[in-house]
Automatic annotation (TrEMBL), chain A:
Keywords: Cell membrane, Membrane, Transmembrane, Transmembrane helix, Transport. This is Phosphate transport system permease protein PstA. Pfam families: BPD_transp_1. Residues 290-522 form the ABC transmembrane type-1 domain. The keyword GTP-binding does not apply. GO terms for molecular function: phosphate transmembrane transporter activity. One of its GO terms (cellular component) is plasma membrane. It is a multi-pass membrane protein. Belongs to the binding-protein-dependent transport system permease family. CysTW subfamily. The keyword Membrane applies.
TrEMBL record, chain B:
GO terms for cellular component: membrane. It comes from Halobellus salinus. GO terms for molecular function: ATP binding; ATP hydrolysis activity; phosphate transmembrane transporter activity. This is Phosphate ABC transporter ATP-binding protein. Residues 44-298 form the ABC transporter domain. One of its GO terms (biological process) is phosphate ion transmembrane transport. Keywords: ATP-binding, Cell membrane, Membrane, Nucleotide-binding, Transport. Transmembrane segments: none annotated.
């Protein structure tokens, strides 16, 4: 540690106490990740880990961490390590620890001591108040470590002694018969204790004071960001693991095994995405639903993007900014937050009678197009407003007309933003179930030979409008609807599909893949347009 | 600045000038600068030009003649209406919805503010370079060829290429000519396809001048073209302006009085309230101005 004579500019970052604090922070991070994994049932808490039950390992680690954190605080207070604590840990910390200890006090009195009624609340309040006082009144090193370390130690001891073991259940005695199981409670408690103790340890690592607070904030932010990303990955991985067996059911490789595409037989056969459902299939598939979803999205985008971009051009470039544009803005924002079932009802009551009276692909496309329209409008408008006026001035000063300026300068500069809007919108509409339920879907299972073929469906007729496409006017199915029908209605539980659960997960996975590939296309397009605008 | 303030200011100046004036009663006689005689013929004539932004009186009865193939500098403190005046000459103020313009501006004797003026033609003949460099986020080549392509003078579109009528060669010539005229060719000749935003600030501004030249203007308006640039880039722009004035009529707004003295043949001094206080040969304005207020401004006592 730097002596008093040395400059404070460089303090000994590599000293032993700092190394211990860093180890404590790392331990807290590991605990955080472990509890997340346990929460998502990647780890089972009753399983043994190196011969010891996971819950005991958790308890031991928590106790160790708690003791370490308290030691840091006391060590700093008695001057064993050189730190720069503030006078108090601050109001926010006091409130947080007050609430934490209120909960701890309440739980202990009611669950362990069995005290009910008002006395329970009194004890809880008293505990909370004491914790707040301990946080706020003493110097920062004591205030921010003692309450955190104590609660961690308490939780650790509870797990370690088996007071709360894998078989522990807290019957909440609500009418719904809800109960807190150890499977849920232990990871959540561990998670919170890891956060609190990790924060305190990070502060100790920074030597308290301003630098310590910075370290504490870093830890919380990184854990937060990390957990968000990991939740996303867990979600995708979860679906993938469950879906892949069903997806690859009956897959064959080899020349000539696959279906013929453009007169060329694919060398691979994946029945799940290449077949529909029929009595004679060895393996059932969802090809009609995939085609339906893709055509739905394509149709909705073709409908909404020109309209939305056109309206955005009018609103930003031509309309005087005033009451009218404000009303349009409020209306579009409102439309974007309108529940999708309302759009579905609109399609059902307005579009269906006008397109042949039955559910049809076209009605579904238009309904989803109406849903997509407000978002495309909002994002395109934002993107065009963000185009610097200097470009418009420069173009006008060259004598170029307004429309040509818009076409050649404003729209190209706004395109990445427009594409971002379309990406967001497609993600939403591709997964919509309610509107297509009312406007587009026929049976749950559509046979493979009824897969919608919009391009091949165009035919010439002798009467106006001379072009007809019966494919557009036929009911078909889409992935989200099929998933919904499979799960709620239990369709396919009979002899059609050999393993319904596998089939459902595989459908979910395919839906996820379809949406992600639309994302990929959108992100590629945005990258392309942005590269044209940027240098390097 | 409201009209009242400007009147008070004029009054104050008038009282100060009692005894030293040469028989004038009102210093800013409206037609005083209109009749100023230059050797060269008048390119732009401005008479009684008033501009209001809402209730704000930005230009107060300005009259002046701008001779052709010369550099005319507009100087004055911030907010005195120099840029507003400049933007009236090619009707860029039409794009400001709150602006109201009274008075007359003539280009080669033809009224600019009248019914049926072809704005495309006007702005082709009266080009403009802005304060901060504003190239389009396109390649250097596209920046130059943008104007002529939009006007249909050059067509390199897909259809033209299919029909074998592409003006590819004409475009290359134009790009090279404009870049050479703007003294930028040597620096960018080998990277015409790079994005213009990758150029330095000074290069970007010269590209903007080249872009302005691409539609063969007669007049070039420059709104503080060097204010965002370092001294070396500024020197290059100044050399370029001197070069350009051989062929074009240049009107330049500047805050930098040394710059005005260096590059311009005529100087117009605008002072607060949107009035044109004095206009004449640059040498005379800087060495022996008629107005005390102009002298105060130039010597740094005012503004």
């Amino acid at each position: 540690m730097a002596g008093a004579a040395e400059t404070r500019l460089v303090s000994g970052d590599t000293s032993r106490s700092n190394a211990v604090a860093a180890a404590a922070v790392a331990l807290a991070a590991v605990l955080f990740v472990t509890s997340l994994a346990a929460l998502f049932e990647v780890i089972t808490i009753s399983d043994p880990f190196a011969g010891v039950p996971v819950v005991t390992v958790l308890g031991g680690t928590l106790s160790l961490l708690g003791v370490a954190v308290i030691t840091f605080g006391v060590g700093s207070y008695v001057g064993a390590v050189e730190t720069e604590p503030s006078r108090s840990a601050g109001l926010v910390a006091a409130v947080v620890f007050g609430v934490v200890w209120f909960a701890v006090g309440g739980a202990v009195t009611s669950r362990v001591l069995g005290i009910g009624g008002v006395a329970w609340a009194f004890v809880a309040l008293l505990t909370g108040a004491v914790a707040s006082a301990v946080t706020a009144v003493p110097r920062e090193d004591i205030g921010s470590t003692l309450p955190a370390g104590a609660v961690t130690l308490l939780a650790g001891m509870t797990f370690l002694t088996g007071s709360v073991g894998p078989a522990w259940v807290w019957e909440l005695e609500f009418e719904q018969q809800a109960s807190l199981t150890a499977e849920f409670a232990i990871p959540v408690v561990t998670l919170f204790c890891a956060l609190l103790a990790g924060w305190a340890a990070a502060k100790a690592y920074g030597g308290f004071g301003a630098r310590g607070r910075k370290m504490g904030a870093y830890l919380l932010i990184y854990l937060n960001a990390g957990s968000i990303v990991s939740v996303l990955f867990i979600l995708i991985a979860f679906t993938a693991f469950r879906g892949i067996p069903g997806l690859l059911n009956g897959t064959e490789f080899g020349l000539g095994t696959g279906p013929t595409v453009f007169g060329f037989a694919l060398p691979v056969s994946i029945p799940f995405v290449m077949h529909g459902v029929s009595l004679f299939n060895d393996f059932q598939g969802v090809l009609p639903a995939i085609a339906g979803t893709i055509w739905l999205v394509v149709g909705a985008v073709l409908f909404a993007v020109p309209l939305g971009v056109g309206a955005a051009i009018f609103l930003t470039e031509y309309a005087e900014r005033g009451r009218f544009t404000q009303v349009v803005e409020v209306a579009t924002n409102g439309l974007w937050s309108t529940p999708s079932i309302v759009f579905g009802l609109f399609g059902f009551a307005f579009l269906i009678p006008r397109f042949g009276g039955g559910k049809s692909l076209l009605s579904g496309m238009l309904t989803l197009g109406f849903m997509l329209l407000p978002l495309v409008l909002i994002t395109s408008r934002e993107a065009m407003l963000a185009v610097p006026d200097e470009y418009r001035d420069a173009s006008a000063a060259l004598g170029v007309s307004k429309w040509q300026t818009i076409r050649s300068v404003v729209v190209p500069a706004a395109l990445p933003g427009v594409v971002t809007g379309v990406i967001l919108g497609v993600g939403r509409i591709a997964g919509e179930t309610a509107p297509i339920l009312l406007t587009m879907t026929g049976g749950t299972f559509v046979p493979g030979e009824r897969t919608v073929d919009v391009i091949g469906g165009f035919e010439f007729v002798s009467t106006p409008p001379f072009v007809a496409n019966p494919e557009l006017l036929r009911a078909t199915t889409a992935l989200p609807f099929q998933l919904y029908a499979l799960i709620t209605a239990g369709v396919g539980l009979g002899d059609n599909v050999s393993s319904p659960t596998e089939f459902q997960w595989a459908t979910a996975l395919v839906l996820l893949l379809v949406v992600l590939s639309f994302y990929a296309i959108g992100i590629g397009a945005r990258y392309y347009f942005r590269r044209k605008l940027d240098y390097e | 600045m409201s009209k009242t303030t400007s009147t008070t200011e004029t009054d104050r100046t008038d009282t100060e000038r009692v005894g030293t004036t040469t028989g004038e009663t009102d210093e800013h006689v409206r037609d005083e600068w209109r009749d100023y005689s230059f050797d060269a013929p008048t390119k732009i004539g401005v008479e009684d030009l008033d501009v209001y932004y809402g209730d704000d009186h930005a230009l107060d009865g300005v009259s002046m003649d701008i001779p052709e193939q010369s550099v005319t500098a507009l100087i004055g403190p911030s907010g005195c209406g120099k840029s507003t005046f400049l933007r009236c000459l090619n009707r860029m103020n039409d794009r400001v919805s709150s602006a109201r313009i009274d008075g007359s501006v003539t280009l080669d004797g033809q009224e600019v503010y009248q019914e049926g003026v072809n704005l495309v033609e006007l702005r082709k003949r009266v080009g403009m370079v802005f304060q901060s460099p504003n190239p389009f986020p396109k390649s250097i080549r596209e920046n130059i060829s943008y104007g002529p392509e939009k006007h249909g003078d050059i067509d390199t579109g897909l259809l033209a290429r299919v029909l074998g009528r592409s003006d590819e060669a004409a475009r290359e010539d134009l790009v090279e000519q404009c870049l050479r005229d703007a003294a930028l060719w040597d620096e960018v000749a080998d990277r015409l396809d790079d994005n213009a935003l990758g150029l330095s600030g000074g290069q970007q501004q010269r590209l903007c001048i080249a872009r302005c030249l691409s539609v063969h203007p007669e007049v070039i308006l420059m709104d503080e073209p060097a204010s965002a640039l370092d001294p070396i880039a500024t020197a290059k722009i100044e050399d370029l302006i001197a070069e350009l004035s051989q062929e074009y009529t240049v009107v330049i707004v500047t805050h930098n009085m040394q710059q005005a003295a260096r590059i311009s043949e005529q100087t117009a001094v605008f002072l607060t309230g949107g009035e044109l206080v004095e206009y004449g040969d640059t040498d005379q304005i800087f060495e022996d101005p008629e107005s005390d207020r102009v002298e105060d401004y130039i010597t740094g006592k005012f503004g």
